[in-house]
Specification:
- 50% of the residues lie in helices and 6% in strands.
- The protein contains seven helices and three strands; from the N terminus they run H-H-H-H-E-H-H-E-E-H.
- The longest helix has 25 residues.
């Protein structure tokens, strides 16, 4: 019997689930091919750290370096705004803002459509991030569901039915 090797993608970006949201979405095929020459796969043990000091690639490719800087500055600005807002929000505003943020990061990205997302965190983790109790987060989600702003098909799946209402509630 012949040993079958699984087919490998032409490059790692071809099989990336977040390709359209990642830095490599901004690169042309030549730059992606170059990026794949330095890519490696490695299995890490629990607690093992991975560090790479290879900034030569970015310096040699100014478009990539610019995109990395632009993305980093955008994330810093988003984090700054988030921290300022959390201190001034009530529970409803915090949960609504969190859902909008998650929809922007994880949603299906179809303008005007309902946004469906699977949260990568538990309600307890949401509570911890927002400075609330798990009971408060659950109550707020129930209120948003009752108001028709969201649907809760399962513990982690959320469908944003009325983003405008959520944005109004977020303040």
């Amino acid at each position: 019997m012949q040993d079958m090797q699984p087919s490998r993608p032409r490059n790692f970006c071809d099989s990336c689930a977040i390709r359209n949201r990642a830095i490599c979405a901004e690169l042309d095929e030549r730059e992606i091919d170059l990026l794949n020459t330095i890519g490696r796969r490695r299995t890490l043990a629990a607690g093992e750290q991975l560090m790479w000091e290879g900034d030569h690639f970015a310096r040699e490719h100014p478009r990539l370096e610019h995109k990395l800087l632009e993305r980093t500055l955008g994330e810093l600005d988003r984090t700054r705004r988030w921290m300022l807002l959390l201190g001034r929000m009530n529970a409803e505003q915090k949960v609504a803002s969190f859902l909008i943020e998650m929809a922007d990061r994880l949603g299906n990205g179809v303008a005007g459509a309902q946004t469906s997302l699977i949260l990568p965190v538990s309600r307890q983790q949401i509570a911890d991030v927002l400075g609330l109790t798990i009971e408060t987060v659950s109550r707020q989600l129930t209120r948003l569901r009752s108001a028709g702003a969201i649907e809760l098909p399962s513990r982690r799946e959320i469908i944003l039915r009325d983003r405008a209402d959520l944005e109004l509630r977020a303040g």
